[in-house]
Amino acid sequence: MPEIDPREYEIADLGPKLKAIEDPEELRAMLDLEREGDARPPVETLIEDRIEKVEAAESGPPDPTAVDLAELSTADVANMVRDIDDADALRTLLEREREGPDRDGAVSQIESRIDSVEGSEEQTEAVETVPPEEKYPELDHPTNEKQWVEGTVGGDYRDMWVYCETHAGELLDVSREMLGKARELMDGYNEAYGSEERVVAVLVGADASDYVEEVTAHGADLVVYHEDSRLERFRHTPYTEIVVDMMRAGGDLASEGHEAVDWKEYHEPRYTLFPATNNGRDLSALVQGALDSGLASDCSGLYIESEVISNPAKVGTAGEKKEFDRVLHMKRPDFSGFEYSTILCIDKPNRDFHPQGASVIPGSFDVPDPDPEREAEVVAYDLELDDDWFAVDVTDVARLSGGVDLSGNDVVVAVGRGIGDDPTRGIELALDLVDAFEDADLGLSRGVITSSYAFDSHVEEYVTEERQIGESGQVVEPDIYIAAGISGAVQHKVGCDEAETIIAVNTDPEADIREFSDYVIEGDLFEVLPRLTEAVETGRLAPVVEASDD
């Protein structure tokens, strides 16, 4: 008899409990109990999916010589070939892919891995490096006059720096998420490389010191903060100047008075993380540009591994390959929305690209449990701020009363352009369904936010940009995600793809959202949503989502 009887739980409550079960036999026993009861199809599917995940984890990665490539996505193929170092085995895999699914993306991933393992077959020759001002003398090169263009080679880089954003007196959840992920990454890094590199939390603002204990509890080893009453609101110039100055302290380009500090003895950070929020996106690009490095934006996955590269621009000699270690692999959704690209920031023979920097989509990682017993070194960073950085005064601010955080709900009901025939009624029906669940809230697609729909006043307050789900909005991972009248564009998929169960309601049999939904109800949301609401209220959601010939 399993410890949990699924018949005693609604699906929204059962999902989180299943995540903690690692024994497939216990899960099968739960499945048998469910089938003995009401036999709710969504609950059965939920348990079956968990069994598949647990067994897949136990069996390890797929055997490339035996796996059915047709059952793998292009992303699965990319992950599999990353661990294959035998060029002949990769060629066999490439031949099987071409004879079978023959997907351009999968073929490209295998070919790229072959190049990385084997290197180019071109004749070995040194790659000539010509400075751009010499290679293109007819062009204007304003970067030559930049104060801090350095072209460092073999610099000393350490630690992972995390910019922790705050708003309206609160530390944003994404800041906690990044600290937890940074802690995990650097613990693994230090074990793998025998190092003692740190997680450094950066705080800037009018009340920056208020968050020192919280960022420490969430994983920081060192907290560097600058506090000034003029920094109550985010401003591009002062925030950029302060963060860059902090990161250069103790290095070759340190500002006056910060050439020698007892908390940092290296040139610049090894890695930097920023939140992919409105302000975080701005700051990440500005800081990484000022540090003369690159940025992988809007990432949802991070890991540190070595990588074999054969690109002559990175290796220095055509026909050779080189292994780069301590490389931060930064995964982000590509333009198709159905696959992910992994971005690497790798040095050239005559040029360092550090820090390796990424901005992180909110909701990508779990918020760690805080440890109130953790201790960290704390630095109140002293820097005189130039009055010119505050040339524009903010005289009045209209602040929203409260905010909307959809990331913690068990259920999210989202509506899109399908409400266009009667926008107010569409929002009302969605809110009725939200109210039928114990822990749910309303989300919107970008199409609703950018539309010119006229809403009656009693629902107008719900149609705000902060409810937008997608690449430029919130990322949610609820147990149940109901997408009504949403086509499933790339940007929206990024915001909901990690939901346990996705139920789509759409009149279009070719809508993209069908490709990544667990259940699809082909019908008008104005007819389907009331039925879903009734089904939830009566405890009979399953019959509504069963496939039918209607």
From TrEMBL:
Cited InterPro entries: DHS-like_NAD/FAD-binding_dom (IPR029035), ETF_a/b_N (IPR014730), ETF_a/FixB (IPR001308), ETF_asu_C (IPR014731), ETF_asu_C_CS (IPR018206), Rossmann-like_a/b/a_fold (IPR014729)
Region annotation (Disordered) ranges: 95-146
Biased composition (Basic and acidic residues): 95-105, 132-146
Keyword annotations: Electron transport, FAD, Flavoprotein, Transport
Domain Electron transfer flavoprotein alpha/beta-subunit N-terminal positions: 160-393
Keyword Ligase applies: no
Family: Belongs to the ETF alpha-subunit/FixB family.
Name assigned to this protein: Electron transfer flavoprotein subunit alpha/FixB family protein
Species this chain originates from: Haloarcula onubensis
Lineage, opening ranks: Archaea, Methanobacteriati, Methanobacteriota, Stenosarchaea group, Halobacteria
